[in-house]
Fold these 3 entries.
Entry 1:
Amino acid sequence: MPQKKIRLPETETGTILYNTDPIIMKWHYEVDYIHSYAQDSPFFTGLSKGKLFGSACTECTTVFSTPRGHCMSCGATTEWFELPLSGKVHTFTTCHFGGQAFLKETPFTLILVEFKGADTLFLSRLIGAEPDLVQIGMTVKAQFLRNSKFLATDVYFVPEHH
C-alpha cells in the first residue's frame, strides 16, 4: 500500500518581497508584553502626577536626576528625591531622524537638563523652541502629558519664557 504524503496546510497569502538578493521581505509581528517598572515605579507614578523624581544617596549624598536604586559613586542605597520642575540646558542636539515613535516629530531637539541640587543630568525633549534658538544655559521647565502613558516621554521641557 503506497504511503500517503503528510503535508502542512497552506494559505493563499504570499510574502511581499522588496528585494531578492539578499532577500528583504515584509513580516508583520505583534505581541503583548507584560512589563514591570519594579523599583522604578515611583518615578513613573510621579510623571502621572506632574512630578519629577530623582534619587539621593543615603551615604555620600549624591543626587541623581535619573533615579538609581544604588549610588553610582559609593554603592549605597538611594532614597527618592523630588526634583525642581525648572532647570537649565546643559547641552542639546537636533535629531533629524528618530525611532518609530518620533519620526513624525523630526527634526526635534533633545536636551540634557541641569537641576539645582542634582549632580547628574536628565535627558528629555525640548518642545516649542526653534533648533537654531536653543542655547546652552537657557532656562526650561517641565511639562507633562495630561493623559499619562507611564513612559519616560510623559515629561518634556519648554522654554521657561516663551
Entry 2:
Amino acid sequence: MIDIDLIVEDDSWDALGDLESLSRRAFAAGCGVAPAEGTVSLLLTDDAVLRQLNKDFRGFDKATDVLSFPAQEMDRPLLGDIAVGYGVCARDAATQSKILSDHLTHLLIHGYLHLLGHDHMQPDEAAIMESLEISALASLGIANPYYSD
C-alpha cells in the first residue's frame, strides 16, 4: 500500500476534482504491476517550479511534465518524491488528444516506477517500463499511451 503526502501548489489542478482519489488509484495500479509499500510525496505544481527543479537537479533549464526523486534506503518508508507541472501536462494531454486525468494518471504511474528504480534510458529498459505502464493503465481502463493511429 502506498501512502500519499499530497501538496497542490497550483489551483489549475483543482479542475480534475478529487486529486487524492485520482492519485491513490494511480499508485494502486502501479502497485499492481510493481508492488511496493511506503510513502510517496507528491507535488502538483506549475511549470515554473518544474523548470527550476529540472534545472537544479538535472541541469536542464526547461519545464517538464514529471520528475521523480527516489529516496535513499535509509529514508524508508519514504519511496521518494514526484513532482508534476500542470502546464506541460495539460498541453501534452491536449496535443495527444488525451483526457487530462488519464494523462496525469499515466505520469504518476511513470513517476512511481522511477521511484522503484525503473528507467527508460536504454531500449530494453524502456520496453520493460512501458510494458508495466501499459498494464497498470489497462487495469484502470485507460488506453495504451504509446499507441497512436
Entry 3:
Amino acid sequence: MPTGGAGESIVQALSAFAAMTEACGARWVVGGSAGLALRGARLAAAPRDLDIYADAASIPALHDRVAGWTVDEPAWDESGRYRSLLSHYRYGSVTIELVGDFEIRAPGSIYRTEVDAFLYAHGDDWTPIDGGRPIRLMPLGHELIFNLLRERRDRALEAARLIREARGSHLIALRQLVAGQSLSDGIKSELSYLTAAEPKEGARDGR
C-alpha cells in the first residue's frame, strides 16, 4: 500500500475510516499534513494525525459510523481565527479530527470549506494498492489558501510547488476557489505569484 510520506499508521487509520463510513452517504475529504503527504509533499515531519473535512450536515452520519472510536462528541469550536464543528476519534495510535464547516479568518479574508458544493468534486483520488476504494484528497488550491491564511509558509510553498508541477485542473480549481471566497488583495496577489513561476523565496517576505 503506497503511503507517500504519510506513514503506515496514518494510512491504516484512513483506510479503516473509509471502510466504516463507505455506505453512510456523506462526502468527506482528507486535508492537512496527511493529505499533502499522500500527494508526495516534502514535509519537515511525518503527519501525526488525520484531518477529515466534511459539511456540518454530514457530521452526524460520519460520527455514528465511527462512534466506537470516539474521544469526544461533535461540538462547535471557536478558537482564535478558526471555527468548526469539531470532534475527535482514536484509531490505534492515530488521532482523527473530523471537521465540519471549517472557517478561518485572517485580516481582510474569510475562508470557508464547502465539501459537497465544491471541494469533493475538485479533489483528487488516492487509491490504496490493496484494492480499497479511492479516497478523496482536498484540492491543492485549498491547501495553498489555508496555509497562507494561517501563516504556514512552508506548507504553502509545498502546495504551490505541487500545483506548478501539475497545473491544469489544479489552477482552474484554485481560480474558482478565489472567486467564491472572500480573500484580501494581498492573499490573491500571493496566490498568483506562487503559482505563476518558481518563487524566489525572500523577494516577497523580507527574508
